[in-house]
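Recap from last week: sequence in, structure out.
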Amino acid sequence: MRMVDLITKKRDRGELTNEELTWMIEQYTAGTIPDYQMSAFLMAVYFNGMTDAERNHFAFAMLHSGDVLDLSEIPGIKVDKHSTGGVGDKISIPLAPLVACLGVPVPMISGRGLGHTGGTLDKLESIPGFNVTETEAAFKKQVQTIHEAIVSASREVAPADRRIYALRDVTGTVESIPLIAGSIMSKKLASGTNALVFDVKVGNGAFMRTIEDARALAKALVSISQTAGVKSVALLTDMNQPLGVTIGNSLEIAESIAVLKNRGPRDVHDLTVALAAQMLVLGGKAPSLEIASGLAEDALRDGRALAAFKQLIQAQGGDPAVVDDPRKLPQAKYRIPVTADHSGVVDQIDTNALGLAAMQLGGGRAKKDDVLDLAVGLILHKKLGTPVSKGDTLVMLHTDTKDVADIVGLVQKAYHIGSSAPKKPRLIHEIIRP
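Predicted structure tokens:
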């Protein structure tokens, strides 16, 4: 085979075979196909798409470019959750201990933030001592012992995807559903899980801005899972405003602790319970979503989920004292309010802009090698539908510098204050099943 022939075939809207896709990924991983040819192929896919069969084969080829964990020695149905990324999306942090304390093993391999979206690993690293890098043996032992672990992927997991993702980032080919689905699934299937729950964000703070795009991605993820013999379900959830009231690493840990104490913002609580219910049903711990939701609510009320979070922190080298005293988390030096310049009702929020504001404070990465300030971020005082008087605080900036005039302006512009309340946003838009 020759790579130029595969590029030409895809350029001309042809369908590549399993053998061709496997050869391409093997050769690219081995370094015999240059980046410029892979870039040309990615652009052809961006414009012409892939058939369902191509998309599935592409994901599996990337999956088998590296190690695939075998978790069969761990009893029970292993269930993981994946979010496509959003602003203030800290759901994995309360979710993993909640599901684990109810007996479902949660081997969660998570990622870091880039751009306007935050990363679970970065948030957890704001807990003093928390280690997100474990050996395969330690990872398995921890899941077997306490039913939960949240770690980074090893460099041996889906190495083809790591190289291809870097190319997509600099060639304008990120927003391609077959490529996104292949990237997600090559890593998730490599974790050795038996079932997956997908949280596909949709709205102005998500990569998928429209319901149609989010639905297409959700269907692709569920289809690949089904072909792989992994049970799955996908929820399309709202990202037209941040989740909860915090954006920023240590701030989101503090909010997650509040949720685990059965307090905290209603939207974070409700989405955590909804995703937990799906995981409990897939994990065989409940016959229906209604019963599963009740089990999750009970575990939040009686403290079992909170205790499981302490176990997780301790198992991964962190200081569990932060659960009882979140002030032990990194704290920013200054609090700077962003105020409303007129009265009305918050009828629109540019969620993407608020994520970028957190990044510009130092809480997120513009480039993959940027060093984070884990203490900084935003606390939202107003969300959609909230009445506002002139001079009210919209957002409180937590910052380590007073030189934030540009960020104050960015946040003010992110809020549109009108004369009437918007329609109440739906937290969950759709549920996609095989």
